[in-house]
């Protein structure tokens, strides 16, 4: 178990912790977990995040009290570890998540197998009875979708000199806001307190990291498109690509729910549904 401190700057326009910041909390809890045992050398030598599954159960609000982060090993392979988490605030489950990590040799730029000591540490925390999160599938965009140019900031690379995994979700967020608001301006964030206000809540977000990104001046492209529409929800697919050579660096899926000003589900607005249907990619 770890304790994660909240910061005032973690809050977004809706007054709760931003969905991207949640990934930072997972990273902090994961790092403290690994530093507590024989996996600490893995952090020094190199480790890469292969993917995240994040289920947002309840909003996290600012508090002087830290979040309780429960951390365990959900799966263990020869060269990969699936780490599970629960983020809890005031005995309320806020986030359930999984992260796939693997040790990486940055000198040779190849994954490596777990050492005997590393495997022994992770095996001691293995809890196989925890149910995996269901897969969130989507069609390939194959160059389709709204293009949002995104530049890597100087502060985005981490200690391994590649763009940190959390920053990818920031780029996904930029593409999501750009795509939805360009499709229908009514999907822009609306201030709370208005009885007719529409809120868009992120309830699930998955991302697969395919190729490392490095700092450069030229922007990358974030492609975003709706791939499923429900009565009160939608699924967006995102691909982060290099426009210079077509390399796909990451693929993400995001589930958004339409809610009223009190946070209760409501049907998608007709204007927004019509606009999204015109952009829908199903295969």
Describe this structure in words.
The protein is an alpha+beta fold and 283 residues long. It folds into two domains: 1-134, Hotdog Thioesterase (Thiol Ester Dehydrase, Chain A); 137-283, Thiol Ester Dehydrase, Chain A (Roll). Helices cover 21% and strands 34% of the residues. The chain is built from five helices and eleven strands. The chain has helices spanning 19-35, 40-45, 116-123, 165-183, 270-279; strands at 2-4, 47-56, 67-76, 81-89, 92-105, 110-111, 146-150, 199-209, 220-229, 233-241, 248-259. Strands 1, 2, 3, 4, 5, 6, 7, 8, 9, 10 and 11 form an eleven-stranded antiparallel sheet that branches. α1 (19-35) packs antiparallel against α4. It is globular. The termini are far apart. Residues 191-195 have low confidence and may be disordered.
Question: Notable features of this structure?
Answer:
2 domains, 283 residues, Thiol Ester Dehydrase, Chain A, single chain, eleven-stranded antiparallel β-sheet, alpha+beta
């Amino acid at each position: 178990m770890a304790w994660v401190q909240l910061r005032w700057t973690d809050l977004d326009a809706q007054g709760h912790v931003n969905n991207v910041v949640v990934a930072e909390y997972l990273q902090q809890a994961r790092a403290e977990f690994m530093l507590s045992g024989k996996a600490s050398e893995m952090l020094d030598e190199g480790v890469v995040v292969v993917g995240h599954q994040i289920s947002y159960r309840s909003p996290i609000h600012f508090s002087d009290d830290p979040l309780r982060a429960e951390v365990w090993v959900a799966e263990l392979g020869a060269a990969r570890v699936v780490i599970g988490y629960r983020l809890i605030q005031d005995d309320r489950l806020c986030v359930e998540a999984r992260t796939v990590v693997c040790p990486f040799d940055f000198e040779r730029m190849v994954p490596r197998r777990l050492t005997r000591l590393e495997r022994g540490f992770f095996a001691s925390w293995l809890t196989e009875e925890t149910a995996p999160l269901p897969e969130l599938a989507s069609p390939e965009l194959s160059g389709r979708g709204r293009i949002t140019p995104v530049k890597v900031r100087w502060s985005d690379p981490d200690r391994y000199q590649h763009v940190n995994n959390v920053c990818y979700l920031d780029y996904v967020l930029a593409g999501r806001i750009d795509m939805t608001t360009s499709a229908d301006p009514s999907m822009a964030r609306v201030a709370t307190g208005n009885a007719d206000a529409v809120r868009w809540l992120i309830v699930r977000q998955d991302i697969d990291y395919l190729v490392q990104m490095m700092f450069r001046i030229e922007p990358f492209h974030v492609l975003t498109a709706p791939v499923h529409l429900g009565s009160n929800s939608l699924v967006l697919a995102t691909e982060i690509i290099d426009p210079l050579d077509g390399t796909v660096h990451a693929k993400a899926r995001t589930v958004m729910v339409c809610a009223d000003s009190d946070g209760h589900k409501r049907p998608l607005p007709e204007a927004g549904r019509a606009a999204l249907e015109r952009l829908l990619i199903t295969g």
